[in-house]
Specification:
By secondary structure, this protein is of the alpha/beta class. It folds into 2 domains: about 170 residues, FAD/NAD(P)-binding domain, CATH 3.50.50; about 100 residues, 3-Layer(bba) Sandwich (FAD/NAD(P)-binding domain), CATH 3.50.50.60. The chain is built from 6 helices and 19 strands. Strands 1, 2, 3, 4, 5, 6, 16 and 19 form an 8-stranded mixed sheet that branches. A 4-stranded parallel sheet has the order 10-9-8-14, covered by helices on one side. Helix 1 runs parallel beside helix 6 and helix 3 packs parallel to helix 4. It starts with a strand and ends with a helix. About 40% of the residues are buried. The model has no long low-confidence stretch (mean pLDDT about 95).
Length: about 280
Amino acid sequence: MQRSGAAVAVVGGGPAGIAAAHQLIREGIEDVVLIEKKDIGGLIYYANKIENIPGFTGCDGRTIVDELKQILKDDRIHVINDRVGSVDVDGDQFKIVCSESSLRSEYLVLATGTNPKTLDIPGEICEPPWQDHRGEKVIIVGGGDAAYDYALRIDRYGGDVTILSRNEPCAVKTLLDQVRRSEITEKTGEVVSWIKEEGGYVLRTADDTFTCHQVVTAIGREPCIPDLGFGHGEVHLPTGKTSVEKLYLVGSVVLGKFRQMPLCWGMGIAAGMSIKRSIQNNRK
């Protein structure tokens, strides 16, 4: 890490974080750094089909990610590829400690997203890669939007897909209809045991036994927040401003069941606007 400080540090390179950084540039706040531990785009990369963003309806997540990368390039936003371990307050600045070094900033936007819940099955996949699935039997455990979206993509790429939902599926009707027009199988039951075998798995519910080459779990996600040396208190919508002065939490990390890209993008924009106004007020 070459930079030691910035006016605004944004942690998270998904839609919410990039929207916040982009809005700050638009507002004339150029001293912005974005920290991302993995790849730009976040979970949106794995989406089979975007259906709720005007102008992108029908495209897949990889197209959105290409656009996000282009925004960072056009805005000349400095990106640091590192993992944030902890954040503390030092005087009137935030001290952000990463794996490789540390950074200080006056304002901090945490757009750190979520971590997947798992079944603790060795080799299970929570974010299935884009690849050819011909000849593969895949069990997707879960009944929400992510499970059904992953199922459609894996089916699209030749996989023999079964969705195993603990209860009645809760995916949006559009996804349910698409799956039910396909050759994807839907089953209801809770996994009570599993066996890892050479070349695959055996999953058992109270009533059925399933064999497959791969298990994909989409059973929910939990907020991913770095270790804070302080509590963030209440988070105010739509800006994500917290009870801690100059600290913002935006996007999926605070949206709970409302994790949708347009909402994440909107929160990022609102945070950028709020920070601009705060900077202006502090200069008076």
